[in-house]
Write a structure and sequence with these properties.
single chain, about 140 residues, alpha+beta, Tetrahydropterin Synthase, Chain A, about 20% strand
């Protein structure tokens, strides 16, 4: 083989390895989610009004949530979708009795998060916290 062919093959191999390295770095940096500071978490969270509804067994519950979003657009959207949040919550609570409510609050938060993310178009709900609950 001539010297020119050897130099071209070596150069192409080096460029290929470099391109693959850059691709790996770009994909890993792009996929990394940045953690929000507590100030941004509070800024982009939405606090619901206190909601009063009944459970399956006729027991009444007053409950309030803080919903964390991933940014400004999601925060604005969830405040507009408050009626859907209340609807989802009433439907879920109507299936629970007093005992299921006491034991399944974490499941209720997860269901609320998943159901809201299904209707969201701008951003996502990252977490749902129960901040007030009274079982009557």
């Amino acid at each position: 083989m001539s010297r020119l062919v050897k130099v071209m093959i070596t150069s192409l191999a080096i460029l290929l390895v470099g391109a693959i390295s850059v691709l790996i770095v770009v994909l890993n940096v792009e996929g990394a989610e940045e953690e929000l500071s507590i100030d941004k978490v509070v800024k982009y969270s939405y606090e619901t009004e206190e909601i009063v509804t009944d459970l399956q067994d006729g027991t009444f519950v007053r409950i309030q949530f803080r919903i964390l979003t991933d940014g400004k657009e999601a925060h604005e959207e969830i405040s507009l979708r408050d009626f859907q949040l209340v609807n989802i919550l009433i439907k879920e609570l109507a299936l629970m009795d007093e005992e299921a409510f006491k034991e399944g609050l974490g499941d209720l938060e997860a269901t609320l998060k998943d159901s809201l993310n299904e209707v969201m178009t701008e951003g996502t709900i990252t977490d749902v916290y129960t901040i007030n609950k009274i079982l009557q």
